[in-house]
Amino acid sequence: MKIELIGFPMFYGCDRPGVEHGPDKLRENGIVDILKKYTNEVNDNGNIEVTQVDTDKKYASHKSMKYLNEVVEGNVRLAKAVEGAINKGGLPFVVGGDHSLGLGSLAGVKSAREDDFAVIWIDAHADLNVTESSPSGNIHGMPLGASAGLGDISLTSLYHEGQKVKPENIYIIGLRSVDDGEEVIIKEHGINIWRMTDIRQRGMDTIIDELLSKISASGIKKIHLSYDIDSLDDQLVPGTGTPVAGGLEIDESKKLVQSIIQTGKVGSIDFVEFNPVIDRNDITLHSSLSMLDAFSEALGNIK
């Protein structure tokens, strides 16, 4: 697989400094070698430029969404990089940074692809909030909703106007922390979800079968896979901004990711929310590197 590695060093979407150091911390600990390990070809594109602004200016561009201008500007640059990577035949592998980068990733994918695509969002959170429903004003809780055309026009029209992904082509796995407004959106828009309670009650193998069967039946040819490390149990990822107890174990997370990649349909990937500044004893670093190895192995097996 030809992988185009793209770093997105931003914390403005989560409003908790440290996560912007994730891409370079992973580089220092061998992400490029890990991705090359299974015969993948890797081109490291470096980091997307992120405009620096003082934290006391977080509401300078919007009364309730934090760092709106900076998030939008960075994601426009990211969208261009993702689109370019796909157009030259590569698989953009975007490493964050916080999950607001989903705005740019999905906008770039949509620009590069004529056909509809699926989004598989592996996350403890739904990230479907709109401005009115967000309890925090943090944009990392809004990228999936905005990409589906919901919420403020400054986010829904990012990079280009129009919906990036249809709600029925969204598949969220690992949910266990959902805001009330997001529950309404899930119900009203028919978004496909599997909560941690589903995984624990029916097993990961059953969930994987259901997920892949639904995507196969939809006729979708390409998948964007967005992986938030907070989908893992909080004991495995103390170095993430919003850890939640009762999450995935490493082995079942690897099985899920590898099963999705083995379909041969994954054409773009996000890996987000590693914050090395708040990590403890490199626990989150090691969990992240272990998961990246699983991504790499599965991608290397795609011919």
Short summary:
The protein has eleven helices and eight strands. The chain is of the alpha/beta class and 303 residues long. Helix 8 (196-202) packs across helix 9 and helix 9 packs parallel to helix 10.
Write up this protein:
- The chain is of the alpha/beta class and 303 residues long.
- The chain has one domain (2-300): Arginase, Chain A.
- 38% of the residues lie in helices and 16% in strands.
- It contains 11 helices and 8 strands.
- The protein has helices at 22-28, 31-36, 68-87, 102-112, 143-147, 153-156, 180-189, 196-202, 204-218, 250-261, 283-300, and strands at residues 2-8, 41-47, 91-96, 118-122, 170-175, 192-195, 223-228, 266-272.
- It has an 8-stranded parallel beta sheet with strand order 2-1-3-8-7-4-5-6, sandwiched between helices.
- Helix 3 (68-87) packs parallel to helix 4 (102-112) and helix 8 (196-202) crosses helix 9.
- The longest helix is centred in the N-terminal third of the chain and has 20 residues, at 68-87.
- The mean pLDDT is 96.
CATH hierarchy class name: Alpha Beta
Q: Report how far the terminal alpha carbons are from each other.
A: 7 Å
- The CATH level-2 architecture is identified as 3-Layer(aba) Sandwich
Structural domains: how many: 1
Largest sheet: 8 strands, parallel
Radius of gyration: 17 Å
Q: What is the overall shape?
A: globular
| Strand order, sheet with most strands | 2-1-3-8-7-4-5-6
Kindly report the name of the CATH homologous superfamily.
Answer: Ureohydrolase domain
Mean pLDDT metric: 96
If you consult CATH, what is the topology? Answer: Arginase, Chain A
Measured by DSSP, the beta-strand proportion falls in: 15-25%
What is the count of β-strands?
8
Relative helix content: 25-40%
